[in-house]
Write a structure and sequence with these properties.
- By secondary structure, the protein is mainly alpha-helical.
- The protein is built from 4 helices and 2 strands.
- A two-stranded antiparallel sheet has the order 1-2.
- Strand 1 and strand 2 form a beta hairpin.
Length: about 100
């Protein structure tokens, strides 16, 4: 049992070290106890803190692929770039949704 607790605390310390602002990860690490946040708590944190750097990167990638797809659709006179951009954006937006436990 001590080994499990030792590994548990090591994981918590690793998360804190790698992510100083770990509140966007959907976990609460107060007093070295790991707790998965509910969907409502995650939404409140997102509303207060905004998007993370990784989410901003994916949002800009989705916007830029859409702009490029529109340009290529007119240039090639073919709707396939727009269809591929829609598929990419659907996957990107799906990644933004917090997972329900």
């Amino acid at each position: 049992m001590k080994l499990i607790r030792k590994n548990y605390l090591a994981i918590i310390q690793l998360i804190k070290r790698q992510n100083p602002n770990y509140s966007h990860l959907g976990i609460n690490l107060t007093s070295d106890r790991l707790r998965i946040l509910s969907y409502k708590e995650t939404i409140v944190i997102k509303a207060e803190n905004g998007l993370t750097n990784q989410e901003m990167y994916w949002a800009y990638a989705a916007i830029s692929t859409t702009i490029l797809a529109v340009i290529y659709t007119f240039w090639f006179k073919c709707p396939m770039p727009l269809v591929l951009s829609f598929a990419f954006n659907a996957v990107t937006v799906a990644q933004f949704e917090p997972e329900d436990a």
